């Protein structure tokens, strides 16, 4: 069954391709660098509102930060 989840790889790709440091990204979001690191390393996942803000801060569509994955039971 397919489901949608936050894509850490897409976040990292957008961050690197736009030359945005983690510190700068955190400042744009009004969040801590620690939280940005948690998102990048999969310790935590951002909620939908944060994904939208993250997309805005990186200059991408929010759909670029979401991936479809198959869940098996």
Automatic annotation (TrEMBL):
Coiled coil: none annotated. Residues 11-65 form the HTH cro/C1-type domain. PROSITE patterns: HTH_CROC1. It holds the Pfam family HTH_3. Gene3D superfamilies: lambda repressor-like DNA-binding domains. GO terms for molecular function: DNA binding. This is Helix-turn-helix. It comes from Actinacidiphila rubida. The lineage of its organism: Bacteria, Bacillati, Actinomycetota, Actinomycetes, Kitasatosporales.
């Amino acid at each position: 069954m397919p489901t949608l989840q936050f894509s850490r790889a897409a976040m990292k790709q957008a961050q690197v391709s736009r030359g945005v440091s983690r510190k700068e990204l955190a400042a744009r979001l009004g969040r801590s660098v620690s939280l940005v690191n948690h998102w990048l390393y999969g310790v935590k996942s951002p909620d939908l509102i944060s994904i939208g803000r993250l997309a805005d801060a990186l200059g991408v569509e929010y759909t670029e930060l979401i991936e479809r994955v198959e869940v098996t039971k």
